[in-house]
Specification:
By secondary structure, the protein is of the alpha/beta class. It has 18 helices and 22 strands. The strands form 4 sheets. Strands 9-10-8-11-12-13-14-15-16 form a 9-stranded mixed sheet, sandwiched between helices. Helix 11 (299-314) packs across helix 12 and helix 14 crosses helix 15 (415-424).
Length: 484
Amino acid sequence: MSVLSENAPGAVSWSAEDVARATGGRLVLDAPGFLFSGFSTDSRKALPGGFFIALQGVRHDGHVFVAGLAEAGGKGFLVAEDKVPGLPMEALAAAGAAVVAVPDTEAGLGALGAWHRRRLSVRVVGVTGSNGKTSTKEMAASVLAERHTVLKTQGNLNNQIGLPLTLLRLDTSHEWAVAEMGMNHFGEIARLAQIAAPDIGVITNVGPGHLEGVGSVGGVLAAKKELLDTMSGGVAVLNGDDQTVAGLARDFKGKALFFGIGPGMDARALDYHQDPSGIRFLLDAGGTRLSVRLAMHGACMVANALAAAAVGLAAGIPPESIRAGLEKTPPVPGRQNVVLLRDGMGLVDDTYNSNPGSMAAALDTLRTLAAGGRAFLALGDMRELGRHAQKAHKALGGLAAAMGITKVFATGDYAAVVADGAVTRGMRKKDVETGGKEEITRAVIEALGPGDWVLVKGSRAMGMEEVSRAIQRAFARAEETDRG
């Protein structure tokens, strides 16, 4: 049976029988009297007192590490049933290790997370959307933390492995958990919602992201709707400015709260102002108006803050505490981070990921911060767009030209397509440069001058943070050079 762990206040320990019960697995080997604390899917981070989950991926199979972990003192293993014959059972038994076998270890991990979430007195917020999930998650957690003990997704561990691992970190001290939910195919959000059983479900927006897996923006909407379809009630927090998202309230079984800049919103921004230090806006939270200052940039961050404010309202957080939580939230790395460089130059580092919606939002931030001065764009491909990739990249080049971007530096498989789109919309050919990542990095550094701004952005696989770091090194302010 599970008990409170002696290792940390509120932590819960597991017996091997608990693991078998939670997963519906077969207890191949027991470790009577031994209580486990924590779970790991990474053999490099597995602890002797934890349970190792042997996941099977395209390139790696966790089962190959079982014997070595047992020799190093590992005591608990969740394995696939069809792998049992190949495991050193005699050695595992001699080491006093527990082994639980399930048909599929990834599904077993999900079952563990679901079982653990339901046995604790905790409420859960599930956050999904095409853009803004991580920032909204961070702000919502900060808002709730003003009055409660909160667990949140680390980084963006938002898939069928990361989400249950997050839930397995819950202990008896936690009152709320804020779980980010990502997807790239149908059914994934439904499965994540089944595991997390959210009390509050947030959909930030719907746009052309992950089209390779779901085919169209309509497919994205259907995939995100799985969150609400899986909830038996509770509260839906929906983007009221996005009519396709707002319309999901009609079929929702519970209560809906809306956020946005339009009239009638439960959490509304009446105006906002952006400068290099951040954003100021007037928040109307359930009828109470408060001035808020975010240490973030971009109109999209206002929308994310409004979503978090609506979560706070749904959870009964007073408006003053909502403001405090929003203002305490630090910028999320790689999401429209503004770096002030020497000679009045500035960099917008939005290198974590990219899709057409987030690219348009980042370009708007760049144009605002450049304030009529020279604005440069260094970009890499937007991935996972499938058959829409060609059209989306050409439209991106056209958007950059239409927004008056001074010069575009593009790298990746679609660099030439971006260039064609920009020139078609009137940008001079000499103002569009394409090449490898190192080439465009050098070109950007050569082009930048006093007062200029540059946006660096691309999908995660493009590694555009390397470009951002090189620019920062080249134009570090004097005080930063002295510290270095």
